[in-house]
Design goal:
The chain is built from 14 helices and 14 strands. It is an alpha/beta fold. It folds into 2 domains: 19-53 and 294-391, Aspartate Aminotransferase, domain 1, CATH 3.90.1150.10; 56-289, Type I PLP-dependent aspartate aminotransferase-like (Major domain) (Aspartate Aminotransferase, domain 2). The strands form 3 sheets. Strands 4-10-9-8-7-5-6 form a 7-stranded mixed sheet, sandwiched between helices. A 4-stranded mixed sheet has the order 1-2-3-12. A 3-stranded antiparallel sheet has the order 11-14-13, with helices on one face. It binds pyridoxal-5'-phosphate (PLP). Residues 108-110, 113, 134, 136, 177, 181, 206, 208-209, 237, 239, 247 line the site of pyridoxal-5'-phosphate. Pyridoxal-5'-phosphate binds next to helix 4.
Length: 396
Amino acid sequence: MSKLEQILEKKLQLIEEHGLWRQLTPLRFITPVRAVSETGREYLVFSSNNYLGLTHAPEVIAAAKAANDFGTGSTGSPLTTGRHFEGNILEKALAKFKHTESALIFNTGYMTNLGVIYGLVKKNDVIFSDELNHASIIDGCRICKATVKVYKHSDMNDLEALLQKDTTAGQRYIITDGVFSMDGDIAKLPELVKLAQKYEACLYVDDAHAVGVLGADGSGTAAYYGLQGQVDLQVGTLSKALASEGGYVAGKKVYIDYLINKSRPFIFSTAISPASMAAAKAALDLLIDKKELYLYKLRSNTKLMRNLLAKYKVNIIAGQTPIIPIMLGDAKITTTFAHKLEEQGILVSAIRPTTVPIGQSRLRLTVTAAHSEEEIRITAAAIGKIWQEIKEGSGK
Ligand SMILES: Cc1ncc(COP(=O)(O)O)c(C=O)c1O
């Protein structure tokens, strides 16, 4: 074994000893919420970001199949010959939905944050970033050359104090998740808009978990607060409520044109397939046209699960989004909890450091529009029972 291999072995051993081992769980989804493992065991899934359950909607599958007739891959980067008609159709629909002039598709939500931050933000600029922003925002901040100032989570006094002290001659950016991916809480957009205006900062909101979830029309955080048109850049993903793959940024045309010309992650990567874009467009149409079936159903399911978990006195972070963190603190207890649910055929993700700070390990339970009332009740009861066992010290 080489020296490097020995070092890696040791590091892996430590990861395992601390209850932080990560491994893949290959699944095949037979419905939006039921999946089979390689051994053929069936699971009920309460950990996906398939919020509207549209991955299996006949309209979405049909759109992807039809687009496959134009080739399974895009075969090139978007500025060469990799841009298909489906991309333009989807961008126009996304811009309209997000109440912006224009939109631009990237390969993933992760790449969108990298591509927009790295493409736009320059050396003399300053980014003010919420401490709980998604890893892709953090990584975008790392690769651009700007100064990054991290403010305490949703603490507007801390943010304003940092803005006040800042003397940059460059551009200021305030960057936040719309719905925070691990806590499920909603950014304080009205205050952020005011601060952005007062300190002439560009306001950038990542709505990955807000589209299909928040707002009367399901278009995200700005709509939730009635602040459409007040956010300069809105990032989103096609991979969650929109049931596909890819990401996008929506904003004024000048931003989009600049990114097409200057964003290296956009320019130097093969465009996503026509099928992915067509599927996302079909999902967007369903979100807009069939709110009872999807958007409103997600909301009533979320309410039911949150109420049941509260009834069982499970320690969740209160809120209204379908991301429901069950706070356990200890990484090993969190892993044990997830295993106990798995034994009962229920999958819920154990989230541990480094995804969350040490001592804040949790189960990240997510509800979708596709869960039945019975599935929600069974799962809440199973969680309540394990929670009680752990509290009594017999479940460790
Ligand atoms: C807030 C946020 N932004 C961006 C992403 C990345 O999106 P994608 O999975 O499409 O790469 C995620 C994914 O979990 C996210 O939670």
